[in-house]
Amino acid sequence: MVVDDPYYRINENGISLHLRGEGRIGRFYAGLTEAGLNVFGPISENIAVADWGLAIESCFGNHIPGRVLAEQGEDIDDPGAYYQLTHYVASFRPYDADARLIGEHIYEDSASRHIEKMDPADVITPERSRELLTPLLGAQPWVL
Question: What pTM value is reported for the model?
């Protein structure tokens, strides 16, 4: 489903990453999981489908541990709490003629970043996400 040498460009929070190859991209996403940064998704989005791939504009939400935001230099009052980051993101996913993913190109509108402390009752941690989604998606480790 992916070309032999995929290429990702990720531009977020003033940082631009260029990742080439399944190994490096896999390590990047594994690092997000290890840091507890894998609860995220679109709040709303518009998707355009073309012969070359997909173009997506999203209002995106992330549940982020306060300690991670503090490490990133964000001014937060409680490193032990969870915060919701909302921001607008445009992404492009080009595909080859065999419908294999060539890469992802992600661009954040940094001026749209909004960080709000969450009520603990509203937090979905990676563990809670796994608990809720496993019955729906099955137990495949690559899904969760």
Answer: 0.83
